[in-house]
Amino acid sequence: MRTSAAWWLRILLAGARVQLSRGRGGNFLLAAVVTPVFYAVVLVLMARYFGRTSELAPFLVVSPALIGVWAGAILTGAEAVADERGSGTFELLIAAPAPTELVVLGRVGTNTLLSLIAIPLVVITGQLLGAQLAIVDVFAAVLALLGLAVSTMAITLIFASTFVLARTTRVFQNVIGFPLYILSGIAFPLALLPDWAQVLSTLVALRWVGELLRAAIRGDSAGVLVPALTAMATLALLYGASGHWLFSRIERAVRANGQVSLGQ
Amino acid sequence: MGSARVLGRAAYLSIYEFFGFYAPLAWLVAWVPRVVFEALFFALVAQFVGGHQQLLFSLVGLAAYRTLQTTLTFTTASVSWELFAGTIPLLVGSPSDPVLVLTGRNLSWAVNGLITGVLTIVVAATLGLALTPASFLGVAGVLAVIELSSYALGLFLGSVVLRFPGYRNMTSSLIGFTLFAISGVNIPLAALPDPLPSVALAAPLANGLLALREILGAADPAVFVPLIGRELVVGTVYLGLALLSFRVFLYRARLRGTLDYH
């Protein structure tokens, strides 16, 4: 079997091409565009009512943008697998010499990059409503967004693997988002959470992305940069390794029991 | 009598459709936690922005909004599922009125919407919302009224997107999110610029939500009864529009021979 880097890259790009041609439909727009924009409207209007728009903008404008990126990615994990199942190509994909995981990663990665559109859209929405957000430390902000993209792709591989297991797991995509948004403290200070939840939040990459982005907005990222980057890199590796392990095992299991498309 | 039987049968079959989508266990371990975690998320944001009073204000608003949005999402989509199942021509060919089936086929989703709203109120109660058995019954009653008007709006949207079934989720979400922003869910209706309050009051949710807040506050029947009446009137208007829209759709589709491939 060919295993050169060029071959792997071609598979990734093939997944990306499929996603670009089939994955920008209504559900993607809903998760990555409509939901974050309306969340931004609702949260900024609430801050305006209390006269705290500028003070709270780093939380209330940044959080809908991050939610948009993660919601888009979680949805893609499910949609990519469901799309292959629905098109009757899932067995062919699994039987082909190219690793299924790479095709899914290509699709998921493409959608993650597309989901980043949520960030400028939410910032513009916030500005139209009077929530001005200026990035003081552009370098830190770019690193935070890079960490966001990589960790999002990595965690989506975990979600996608569960959707390979059975089609009914799709109903669980609804429940994944909010616990992660709560634990990450992207929309409010983590001090509002109980101690045990604050400890758990260290395992959510979104927490570190949010902290670094807010520091970049304040212009005091010096104390946050190294711990946030270390945490994001470690968590991305952890998510990626777990996703790869899960995907391989689940793929082997559905091949063994002959339920690639029939798994309920 | 025949119409009631058809409506009842469609409602009965909608239970099967619902459990085909959400098996009882999946509903319990996926939908219920989703509702609870969403309520906790907005509670924490509201607490952060405006303190404990804002937390309670937002959760009461969220209960009404979740009742509407849950119903809107599934009811709008569910009408299109009839199209995807290829059964609309069969309904048209049958001796009963297809509009009755299309109207009744979502009723289990309506019950799901109502339970979702009540669950959110339960979360609010655990976080400090003062509820007596009487006020809880009043709240459940108003949520049921919001449910009815939301169901009517969902039917109307469902009837419209029969022409564009690919946009069913987008349509219900856009309308739902707009009402989320302008119906006084997180800030008082009066704090919004004109004409947004007037627009909100002409749609489901805003009147019912005002009634809900009144029942949980001063509980003056002179205030909440007319508001409930207005919510019902709004729902009736949307139901009328839905029935009209269904008839126009079916008439035109039969003329063009496009009943099953819009």
Question: Can you put this structure into words, describing what you see?
Answer:
- The complex is a heterodimer of chains A (264) and B (262).
- In chain A, helix 8 (138-165) runs antiparallel to helix 11.
- Chain A has 264 residues and is mainly α.
- In chain A, 78% of the residues lie in helices and 0% in strands.
- Chain A has helices at residues 5-22, 26-49, 53-60, 62-87, 90-95, 100-115, 118-128, 138-165, 173-184, 195-201, 205-218, 222-256.
- With 262 residues, chain B is an all-alpha fold.
- Chain B has one domain (3-256).
- Chain B has helices at 2-21, 24-50, 52-84, 88-93, 98-104, 107-126, 133-161, 168-182, 196-201, 206-216, 221-256.
- In chain B, helix 2 runs antiparallel to helix 3 (52-84) and helix 2 crosses helix 6.
- The model of chain B has no long low-confidence stretch (mean pLDDT 89).
- The interface between A and B is large, with 34 and 38 residues.
Keywords:
heterodimer, A: mainly alpha, B: 262 residues, mainly alpha, 11 helices, 0% strand, globular
Please describe the topology of this protein.
The complex is a heterodimer of chains A (264) and B (262).
Chain A: H1 5-22, H2 26-49, H3 53-60, H4 62-87, H5 90-95, H6 100-115, H7 118-128, H8 138-165, H9 173-184, H10 195-201, H11 205-218, H12 222-256
Helix pairs in contact in A: 1-6, 2-3, 2-4, 2-7, 4-6, 4-7, 4-8, 4-9, 6-8, 8-11, 8-12, 9-11, 11-12
Chain B: H1 2-21, H2 24-50, H3 52-84, H4 88-93, H5 98-104, H6 107-126, H7 133-161, H8 168-182, H9 196-201, H10 206-216, H11 221-256
